[in-house]
Specification:
This protein has a single domain, classed as Rossmann fold. It is about 35% helix and about 15% strand. It has a seven-stranded parallel sheet with strand order 3-2-1-4-5-6-9, sandwiched between helices. The protein has a two-stranded parallel sheet with strand order 7-8.
C-alpha cells in the first residue's frame, strides 16, 4: 500500500532553486512562484539576479566553494520540500566541448568536474540535511542524456559527458543513503532537453523541429515530471517527457 506521505503534491511549502540566474533557473523560479500558494521560493545564484526577481528570497552561492555552499544552506532555515540544482557547464567563452582526444586539457576537465559533479555533490552534502522529514521532499539535479554511458554512440564532449555521468552516479549513491534516513525523499537527475539558452546556442542547428524548448516551456515540463515522482523513482534520471534515461 502506498504511504500517503509519498503522494505527489505540486505545491511545495519551501522550494530552493540553485543556479537561479541561468535561463532555466530563472524560468523555474518564476513558475514556482506562480504555483507557490503561500509557499516560499528561494533563488540562489553566483551572479546577481534580474531586478524583476528581487521579490523572492535570494542569496549568493558559488558551488565550487564549500564555505559558500555551507553558508547558503545555513541561511535557508525552514525544512525544504523541493531543491532544484539548475547549474552546469558545457563550454565557456574561450573553449567548446572537446571533440577529440587531442583536445583534452587537464584544467578544462577539472573545471567541468568542479561545476558539473563536485559542486552538486557539495550541495547534496549541505542541503540534504534540510529536507523535510514528515512528507515527500524532492531533490532534482539537472543532468543530461549525454551523461548516459550506454547511450553514447557518437563520442566526443569528453569533459561534459564524463562529469554528467559522474553526477548521475552521485545522484544514485545519494538516493540510496537518503532512503535509509528520509524514506519520503526523492533524489533524481532530470534532462531538460535542448533549451534555448547560452549553453546550447552553438549546437542548435541540428535540433529537430519542436524540440528546441524555451526556458519557460522547459521549466513547465520539468515541474510536470517532478509532480509525478515518488520515492520509488529515487536514484534514476528522467528526461523532460518522463522517459527514464539508462545509466
Amino acid at each position: 500500500m502506498t504511504d500517503p506521505l509519498d503522494k505527489c503534491d505540486p505545491a511545495f511549502t519551501t522550494s530552493v532553486v540553485i543556479g537561479a540566474s541561468g535561463g532555466i533557473g530563472q524560468a523555474l523560479v518564476e513558475a514556482l512562484r506562480q504555483q507557490a500558494h503561500g509557499g516560499v521560493v528561494h533563488a540562489l545564484s553566483r551572479r546577481p539576479l534580474p531586478l524583476g526577481m528581487r521579490a523572492v528570497p535570494t542569496a549568493p552561492i558559488d558551488i565550487t566553494s564549500e564555505p559558500s555552499v555551507r553558508t547558503a544552506a545555513a541561511a535557508i532555515g525552514a525544512p525544504i520540500d523541493l531543491l532544484i540544482v539548475a547549474t552546469g557547464m558545457l563550454h565557456d567563452d574561450e573553449h567548446g566541448p572537446e571533440r577529440a582526444l587531442r583536445e583534452l586539457d587537464p584544467d578544462r576537465l577539472a573545471r567541468s568536474f568542479a561545476i558539473n559533479s563536485i559542486g552538486p555533490a557539495l550541495i547534496l552534502k549541505h542541503f540534504a540535511p534540510l529536507l523535510a522529514r514528515d512528507r515527500r521532499a524532492v531533490i532534482a539535479l539537472l543532468s543530461a542524456r549525454v551523461g548516459s554511458i550506454s547511450d553514447n554512440r557518437s563520442g566526443g564532449w569528453y569533459g561534459y559527458r564524463a562529469s554528467k555521468a559522474a553526477l548521475n552516479m552521485i545522484i544514485r549513491s545519494a538516493a540510496v543513503e537518503l532512503a535509509r534516513i528520509r524514506r519520503h525523499c526523492v533524489c533524481v537527475g532530470l534532462h531538460p532537453g535542448t533549451v534555448d539558452t547560452g549553453l546550447s546556442k552553438p549546437f542548435q542547428r541540428g535540433v529537430p523541429a519542436g524540440k528546441l524548448f524555451s526556458p519557460e516551456r522547459a521549466a513547465a515540463q520539468l515541474l510536470d515530471v517532478i509532480a509525478t515522482l515518488t520515492p520509488s523513482d529515487s536514484g534514476k534520471c528522467f528526461a523532460w517527457d518522463r522517459a527514464e534515461i539508462a545509466p
